[in-house]
Amino acid sequence: MSAAHQALRTARRTGRELAITVLDRGTHTSYSACGIPYWMAGDVDGGDDLVARSAEQHRDAGIDLRLGVEVVAADLSGRTVTTADGEAIGFDELVVATGAPAVVPDWALRPDGTAYAGVGVVKTLDDGTAWVDRFAEAGDGAHVVVVGAGYVGVEVAEAALRQGFGVTVLTRTRGMGMLEDEMSDLVNKALVDAGVELVLGAEVTGLDLDGDRVSGVHWDGGSREADLVAVAIGVRPATDFLRGTGLPLTEDGALRPDPHGRVADHVWAAGDCCEVRRRIDDAWVFRPLGTHANKHGRALGDSLAGGSLAFEGMTDTSITRFAACGQYVEIARTGLSRADATAAGLDPVALVTEGSTASGYMPEADPVAIWVMADRASRRLLGVQVVGGRGAGKRIDAAAAVLWHEGTVDDLAWMDLAYAPPFATAWDVLQVAARRVAERL
Amino acid sequence: MSAAHQALRTARRTGRELAITVLDRGTHTSYSACGIPYWMAGDVDGGDDLVARSAEQHRDAGIDLRLGVEVVAADLSGRTVTTADGEAIGFDELVVATGAPAVVPDWALRPDGTAYAGVGVVKTLDDGTAWVDRFAEAGDGAHVVVVGAGYVGVEVAEAALRQGFGVTVLTRTRGMGMLEDEMSDLVNKALVDAGVELVLGAEVTGLDLDGDRVSGVHWDGGSREADLVAVAIGVRPATDFLRGTGLPLTEDGALRPDPHGRVADHVWAAGDCCEVRRRIDDAWVFRPLGTHANKHGRALGDSLAGGSLAFEGMTDTSITRFAACGQYVEIARTGLSRADATAAGLDPVALVTEGSTASGYMPEADPVAIWVMADRASRRLLGVQVVGGRGAGKRIDAAAAVLWHEGTVDDLAWMDLAYAPPFATAWDVLQVAARRVAERL
């Protein structure tokens, strides 16, 4: 929808006439999937609050929006798409913005392909409604097993704890795979200190059932009773309908549009069905995040209507927090991991530095740990990760800016970041961390 | 002291032998002057908490520290300084780090040159002690007049309000002179909403006295009774002892060291007695801030001992907050003002954008206003100012990073800033603000 609206805006400027039809198999448009865990936690009153623009608002803007319509095939040379109802719809330009539905493992599914009662993913607004209902129906002392410890897994664990449930988090990895081990350990500690039963290296093997309803979870090495199971193991591009069209898809089904959103003549793509280009190592990576999707859609819409806006890649920034049961950590990262850097042939030097979010004598001062990595030869900043108290997380933005500009660890150490006692130490902790790495190059 | 310690560290690496003598006319070393308003507010238990390193700690590190020793003259060719007691002390290298004492206007002073009882500046740890005592002695319903509405003025107003006093703020300007008018208006509104009597355009003409003690303040256009008067109208480099040495001083008495801290053969300078170079327009400006002083000192100390660290200028970043009586605003700026840009021959385009510090549906969402200015022809980002709720202020760092790297307003709009609902909107408000300016260039 971001692409559609930008296209209309740009068309007014360029004088083009556009008739935009939007087909969506879902029941809602333009909602914040990222907000669903906070709705589950009780921070958000209802699903409507998560809707940025209603279907009516889109239609009022002149967009022919058709909900509940699933496209199952595309004929690119014939310039038509076919819906599940068999309708063929023609186009001059096709925009693929089908997103990435949550992956649902076989063990979660009944023979008919639907999930067992008490089991669900956390992706669509309907998923959110289902979870809010499940939480409301669950009795005191109910236990929630969260499968997956990525951003969504941690956010759902927070939601369940804040609703008073017992929580187990199972992860195949060491937890928070987007962080270096020493940083993910800090998040793990916060989870455990909040009362989460955290099981690392656990691959789920199956469910116990009470009739149609989940009653327990088994993994290699253990099991536990469970009233609810939240599955948060990732998402996958919804591009099956493009198989056989000749469009290049990655092994995982993702598209790789150019900076203007083009994937072929008259075919465009944006959002979670796409990979994005990471500037630092020029790698294509799958990062289905709302901020990339919004930017990408805007560049696409503008370009399609004759403008020149471009999505010039990203620096692999992301953020979340874990806040429940007396624990509060902000979690952020930008740039490469150590493994990324090594794979790119760089010579990474990395250190974790501990410091404070504010001057030590201030009540606002919270501990923060900052991981900084730079390339030994070029001194280029390669990556930064942050785990810490209030005010820690968005510090990542200054590092993301240095990465965007291909700056060095010295730039990060010496640039002019804002200092006053409620906000930072005289050398911001980010700069202390950068300086320590700079001294070791 | 930052220079002294870095010099010792570097000397260990370069194999130089350094004997460092530090002369200071004051009674304390290495304290956070920035923390004094928060001590006055009651956030900090005692002045000792503001001391980063005690005199003993400096001496233990091998520095010959002599407190209560004022240097009154320097002979650069003879390489000696002379103290107020008439002692001549020789040097091989002279480091001038004398700082900038608070300006005290004539109307505040008795004939003997000391301030009337109840009147004081807010600069040294001794000033802090005096203010904490004054606040403790002042009765219920006491009224504090703050003269000056810069950072210190606003912070002292917060402190006095939080201690339960009535507060008047008098300023010669429109308030918060480091902000554009439309942004300073937002701070003024917060002050007034917190119950401050704010008088803009007021030049103090004199005091009413009750014996030796202040009882009222007069300005052109008004007067009011006052129990205490805090003077926060600025600071001035303590360089009088250098007059006549041939060292170049600005009209205001500031030094202009090179990036390594050199001002002449065997003479160095750092900190608040210096101007700093602003990268964007290559202007020398007087910005007596702790973060510059710390960086500057480190570069100087390293260079003096054979290293090569350099202070490569700043981008004019600063931050504070006003938090009292139900009001809470974070206040930050970086880069040029509109007047700076025009003076530099640029063609500035600027806009204020209102947005939110977090996704609108989150309890963390607070209003924020962001002023962004760019150059019409080059699209270069020139300045950003922020006034808003919790999490607003340190957003300035991402803008400061773009300025450091001479980036464009498009860089700020499209770079990869961190998004999750508790922290930002999908386009961070900083990027919405940048985009709106980009669209108008």
Provide a compact summary of the structure:
Chains A, B: One of its GO terms (molecular function) is oxidoreductase activity. The structure is a homodimer of 441-residue chains. With 441 residues, chain A is of the alpha/beta class.
Order of strands across the main sheet of chain A: 7-14-8-9-10
Average pLDDT reading of chain A = 97
Amount of helix of chain A: 10-25%
Q: Classify the fold: give the CATH topology of the largest domain in chain A.
A: FAD/NAD(P)-binding domain
Distance between the termini of chain A: 46 Å
* Assembly status: homodimer
The CATH class of the largest domain in chain A is identified as Alpha Beta
Largest sheet of chain A: 5 strands, parallel
Q: Give the domain tally of chain A.
A: 3
Number of distinct helices of chain A: 11
Output the structural class of chain A.
alpha/beta
Number of strands of chain A: 23
Fourth-tier CATH superfamily name of the largest domain in chain A: FAD/NAD(P)-binding domain
Low-confidence stretches of chain A: none
Name the chain pair with the biggest interface and residue counts per chain. Answer: A-B, 63 and 62 residues
**Structural shape of chain A:** globular
CATH architecture of the largest domain in chain A: 3-Layer(bba) Sandwich
The Rg value of chain A, from CA coordinates, equals: 23 Å
